[in-house]
Specification:
Elements (H helix, E strand, L loop, with lengths): L2 H14 L3 H46 L1 H24 L4 H8 L12 H9 L3 H15 L4 H33 L3 H27 L1
Length: 209
């Protein structure tokens, strides 16, 4: 089997399985449609490419020789994801959100990172993104080097991640069509918040093992 097939499989498995990026894109698409989720998707892809560049420039070697740095980053990222999940779960029981609801605004619009810049920055505190980039880069480095390594990894990350997130965006639109009532949206937010919390805690446990 070609090494590229294995690398593509690693990226696809990480990109398709539920995680913080997928949940954010799903919820964004449920609120704004696939077109409205495109900036979030672009932010995820661009952030992943930036992380890959950092990994190839020396971050991978740093994490390999300094496990404490990788553990600190994973812990900080998981703590941030737990905060986002809790904030999404409690909904307009949060004082600021309740005030926004009373003013007639969608109270939960700003509970998660949004847009190209927000999702780009989000990648650097997403432990799953770091695991994906470091694992795939290490696997690719065994058979490629230099410009070929960079070009191959960039193409695989961009194409597979974009395709995966578009599928999650389509799922978000399908969910919205069935659950468009405000009460259903609240249930969806709480379910996504619980999933985000669970994924963060699982990643934290894995990081400390």
């Amino acid at each position: 089997m070609s090494p590229l097939v294995g690398i593509a499989g690693v990226i696809a498995a990480a990109a398709l399985t539920p995680g913080p990026n997928n949940l954010v894109v799903l919820r964004t698409a449920a609120r704004a449609g696939v077109r409205g989720a495109l900036p979030a998707i672009a932010g995820v892809v661009l952030g992943s490419l930036a992380m890959m560049t950092l990994a190839m420039a020396g971050a991978a070697a740093l994490f390999a020789t300094a496990p404490a740095a990788r553990l600190a980053l994973a812990s900080a990222g998981c703590a941030y994801l737990c905060w986002l999940g809790a904030r999404l779960f409690v909904g307009d029981r949060v004082v600021g959100d309740r005030a926004a609801a009373e003013a007639g605004a969608e109270p939960s619009d700003q509970r998660l990172p949004a847009g190209v810049v927000g999702l780009f920055a989000f990648q650097f505190l997403n432990p799953k993104s770091w695991v994906l980039v470091l694992t795939a880069t290490a696997a690719a480095s065994a058979s490629l080097a230099g410009l070929a390594l960079f070009a191959t990894m960039a193409a695989l990350l961009a194409v597979i991640t974009t395709t995966s997130l578009l599928l999650w965006a389509a799922l978000g639109v399908a969910v919205e069509r069935r659950w468009s009532a405000p009460a259903h949206r609240q249930r969806l937010d709480r379910a996504l918040g619980a999933l985000l919390l669970a994924s963060a805690l699982l990643m934290l446990v894995e990081a400390w093992r």
